[in-house]
Write a structure and sequence with these properties.
The protein has 186 residues and is α+β, with helices and mostly antiparallel strands. It has helices at residues 13-26, 34-42, 90-106, 121-132, 169-183, and strands at 4-8, 47-53, 56-66, 73-81, 110-116, 136-142, 151-157.
């Protein structure tokens, strides 16, 4: 499948219209609203990425960079693949594109995601996807005040050390800094 990778730093209503279905299909509840996503891009704290096949968006992601200079980390806030194409390597392709973009454009030293901390088959499937792509699951379980399900941080170190904080709390400092900026008005 011939795919095009697109990253935007400013809100694009037409592109969002093409990726919105995949976003809501993968994250039917609890996801950031369109207004928050729009604000993140307008304030230059977030990015939208799309994997496009023959003009159709088949994968999408929302990311942000946190940290300064040699301490820059990419947060993948959301990554989703069209339901009909899951299991065909599209998520791994998208992750590879995002990683290359983030290293080239921002000089990041690692990528962090947060995964639902559960034992259902779907929870385990998501965690295994990230592990197959080099991410390390940390032991710390984080409970947000406004979200019912707990989360665990996963990291893909890119600085050559391969070191990931054991407890995961350190990773949630990056995640929480990103969320604080994302939800802040103005």
């Amino acid at each position: 499948m011939n795919l095009e990778f697109i990253t935007i730093e400013e809100w694009d209503e037409a592109l969002w219209g093409r990726m919105e279905r995949i976003y809501h299909e993968a994250f039917p509840s609890g996801a950031k609203t369109e207004a928050i996503l729009r604000s993140m891009l307008n304030r230059r704290i977030g990015y939208l990425h799309a994997g496009v096949h023959q003009g159709v968006v088949v994968a999408m992601a929302v990311t942000g960079v946190v940290g300064q200079a040699a301490d820059k980390i990419l947060i993948i806030d959301y990554l989703a693949v069209d339901k009909a194409l899951r299991g065909a390597g599209m998520g791994t392709w998208m992750l590879e594109q995002i990683r290359a973009w983030a290293v080239h454009k921002h000089g990041i030293r690692g990528i962090i995601i947060e995964a639902e901390s559960g034992t259902t088959a779907s929870h385990m499937e998501r965690i295994h996807f990230w592990e197959r792509n080099g991410f390390v699951l940390t032991s710390y379980v984080h409970q947000y005040r406004m979200v019912p399900e707990p989360y665990q941080a996963m990291m893909l170190p890119l600085d050559g050390t391969g070191v990931v904080p054991d407890d995961g709390e350190a990773l949630f400092r990056y995640i929480n800094a990103f969320h604080s900026k994302a939800y802040r008005k103005g």
